[in-house]
Fold:
Amino acid sequence: MKNFKQDIASQIYEVTNINEKELETYIETPKDTKNGDYSFPCFRLAKELKKAPPAIANELKEKLENKIEKNENIEKVKVSGGYLNFFINKNILIKEVLTEISNEKEYGKSEIGKGKNIIVEYSSPNIAKPFHIGHLRTTLIGNSLYKIYKYLGYNTIGINHLGDYGTQFGKMIEAYKMWENEYNLEEDPINKMMDMYVRINNLCKQDEEVLERCRQNFKLLEDGDKYCVDLWNKFKDLSMIEFNKIYDILNVKFDSYNGEAFYADKIDDVIKVLEEKGKLQESDGAKIVDLEDVGISTPCLVQKANGSSIYATRDLAAIMYRAKTYNFDKCLYVVAYEQNLHFKQIFAVAKYLVDEKYAKGLKHVSYGMVSLPTGRMSTRLGNVVKIEDLINGTIEKAEEIITEKNAQLKNKEEVAKKVGIGAIIFNTLSTATIKDQIFDWDTALNFQGETGAYIQYTYVRTKSVLEKVGYIPKFEDIKVENLLDEHSLEILKLIYNFKDTLIQVTDKNEPSILSKYLIELAKAYSSFYNENKIITEDKQLQDARVYLTYAVGLVLKQGAELLGMEMPEKM
Ligand code: ARG
Structure:
């Protein structure tokens, strides 16, 4: 597809000699189309050219005018304050978009990531502990990033870095030894294991002897004692059954479940390299890496006084292993912002452990807190929300709403599942990743708000238009002049920007860019639908509008799927 942005950047390059790629990143798409289709903020060059932005804009315009007259892609350029506004040739835009839509089954798919390896680490719950609402957020953000990178041609590896290691397992083993008969773990595994853990933990606080036995158990586990390893596996299997229920409903998959335990026997390399480079220091018998000179005041603890590894050490071992195994270009960690310091520290230490190329590719995709509103929902679900209950509750609620709106609908249950899960996914991915958010049924399931249900509803609307007319026109028959009205053009421009939107998501590791895009597209279609009669006497006009409807449906569906949602055909 023609790249208008690139074209504009190369024109500016010719008259300024400033790096074309850099220029391209400056180009914006103005909200109001009256200000053109693309706009170049001249303040970006003010420092370099030592002039005020409006002066730069005027000068550039003068120099560009001649070239633009000869360039068929660009209609005209206008100055507005410190901005240079470009108006592209609408006929070309329309033809480009329609051709691309007709050619591609998977619109916007690309190969730009070819040959690059991207690790997305997401979900990573802890064994024998509840999968909480924060884990839901990393699961959905990671799943979407995984899909989008893949769609852009990257070789993508999804890793669930399970929290399956640590001294708490020594305690769990002791609890099991003592109270095996009191707990029927199979019945409600995670809660029962939680109860056992809380109980043994309290006991350890009172009884030094019990604590010592727990330490022994952990040592035995580390040394591969069969009884302890078998028990640890049992805890892990029971937890995975629960986690998999959630992954199954959400249709989330991973390529690897190598968690913390996987790295327990790989920490010697970490210690060895740090030792060789003289980066390890003793502190009360423990080993630490001082990070003061890189601006981090808290040192990174890598080995406890008793010689065992900690969470950070296992992460460091994982970085070395992943560099070697996956030769990654980027390794993303979708983890809550509470762990900001942890990632700062391990990324700093990683510079001593792996090549610069890898150290530079490490990225913490930090997300904010999720909470539930007080009131109706929390009373119904209790204080500690089981994620499975939250999901099922949302599906039930979706079914109520659907039944109210469309009692006749067939396979209501299936639709409710798509709408309910879609509501959770879209709600999670529509807030900027770093921001805190609230999950509230009423907002998330509103068919008219900025929600997943609204995207699905708009998609279903395009489907019913196509069903009503009973055909999809051939794109060769579409007359460009029938799509030059304001509403059609707005849609066409958005569709044109789809691929660019996906690239922005990967540049910023921010799926909310795609959610916002889909809302804009759905809104644009609603205006189009309300203002333009689709079924009309004028067959050519009808064809053009039906085709545009078809295109909107295609892009909405593709985009939603990249967020992890499924589309109902009716609702
Ligand atoms: N298991 C941790 C938790 O639930 C998250 C793990 C994050 N990933 C990592 N490589 N440290 O908080």
The mean pLDDT is 93. DSSP finds 23 helices and twelve strands in the chain.
